[in-house]
# Entry
Amino acid sequence: MSEIFFQYIINGLTFGAIYALIALGFTVIYKTTDIINFAQGEFVMLGGMLMYTFAENCSMPILPSFALTAVSVCFIGIITERLFIRPALNASLISVIIITIGISILYQSAAMLIWGKEALIIRPFSETEFIELSEEIILNVQNVWIFGITIFFMIILHLFFEKTITGKAFAACSSNPNAAALVGINRNKMVLTSFAVSAGLAGIAGAALCPLTNASYNMGTLFGLKGFCAAIIGGLGNNLGSILGGFMLGIIQELGAGFISSGYKDAISFLILIIFLVFKPSGLLGSKWKKRV
Amino acid sequence: MSLYREKKGLLFFFLIIGLIPLFLNKFQAGGYYIGVLTPIGLYSLAAVGLNLLIGFAGQISLGHAGFMSIGAYSSVYVCAKLGYPAIYGIALSIIINCILAYLISKPILKLKGHYLAMATLGVGVIINIVFREFMYFGGGEGISVPDLKIFSFNFNDYKIKEIAYFYLAWSLTLASLVLSINFINSKAGRALRALHLNEIAAAALGINVSSYKTFIFVYSAVLAGISGSITAHYNSYILPSTFDLHTSIKLVSMVILGGVMDVKGAILGAFIITILPELLGKFDEYEGLVYGGIIIAALIFFPNGLISLIKKINAKILKLFKKK
# Structure
């Protein structure tokens, strides 16, 4: 019993790490633009697909293909912002939601055309695939990789926000866009950077995850939605909250799938989301809701 | 536009729609075209309710396919499992959706913007998963639906099926449209418009904000349910995936693409979104690419929906006539 429990926790932490990365991406965009990017999940998918292209098609070593993937997805994020988001920055909330859903449909079908409908297998990051911790518990090394990579990039992101001028400009832009513009911060540039950063995070998540789950063109939507769930559970707009929300969602989902029913796995995540929205819409760490008159 | 003129224009539009089958029947491929127009009517029915919710109550719902599936499965339950006439199935769908939408709306409509979008999306996904996992209704494999019979008149009779469903769908849409337009121009409708412009100001003027929002939510859920019931009978077979997240998104896209400030926009949107894949059938694999591209382009260039474009063209034509 306790071994199974431990196994679920490991899986939960792995998926939680992925959700946390995606949720961080949501938060970064949300803070600068008030936009929720429903195409976020597609960047995860593109991360997985590009990882396949670099690591399997071009048979490059893991590290350079991982770096190339991250940079390419960043670049796709930049193109997305320039082409689709900037012309619609001042549109109504629901129009922007539908536009990002349109982007999601667009990327999904583009990926289907390029990489086909089959699930693509990517080799694990290290040669030894499994470690036996005890007789019952077998640890997949990829889980460790995912966890480590997530923590590493979280620290990088934290340093970026706290130590660099661009990061501080971000904070200024999200707390008061007009005042930020007055002191010479270019909002458009910030929005562009936020899309690059957020796409990059999602791409990293996809590249790290896909050796475990395989990559397919339609995997993105659900990951995007779960990441958004995690962002809301943690408190929309709060970085630490997104991380906490991601891990919480991952663990509860895996435990629920294990002990209740795997068919209801996704229903459990959305149920948690609704419970949070009804009883504590500000999330775990979010600031109190204020009604503006 | 005055109420009288609006209704006159509407009657004219539906007269044309009503005459379409008479003309099309003369052609070889007439059945195909009617077969495309019927789903448009059914989607319009659900979209009209959603239009009221989004455009006039200012609320978002990304979960209305859930209500459609409840409609569909109540029809299945009553007709296939209990063996009662189809009309009871539709009645059950209305009752269940009323109760469910009312119960859901209480906590959920307090939310706003992205939170509301995500909550309704969650409700839709959960309903979908429950039907997928619930083996009593065939689970993910789907279940067949008995014919739609109203007083010994069988809509599914193969000789008249397309025509019968065509008139059924479009007359229901017309009814819902007239009902909605009357509602918009009533006291409640004015209150709703005030609510859309500024909720707090509306509340300060003594408008009971939450009860109006709830009413519209329930109304739109019931319309979606009826649409789902008839879709089930029309298709003779339903799968949970017929009413998944994509359907919810499709419905919202119809409303937004058509234009939210006019109920007729919902019908225009339903036309475009349903016909697009049919036209794109020739593009085959590029379907999603073109489909996504058109949604994005339409919203970037016509943020008020395509109905605003039609109104502009209409006004220009009228001007031309007046000059002469």
User: Anything to note?
Assistant: The longest helix of chain A spans residues 2-33. Strands of chain A lie at 130-132, 138-140. Residues 2-279 of chain A form a domain with the ABC transporter involved in vitamin B12 uptake, BtuC fold (CATH 1.10.3470).
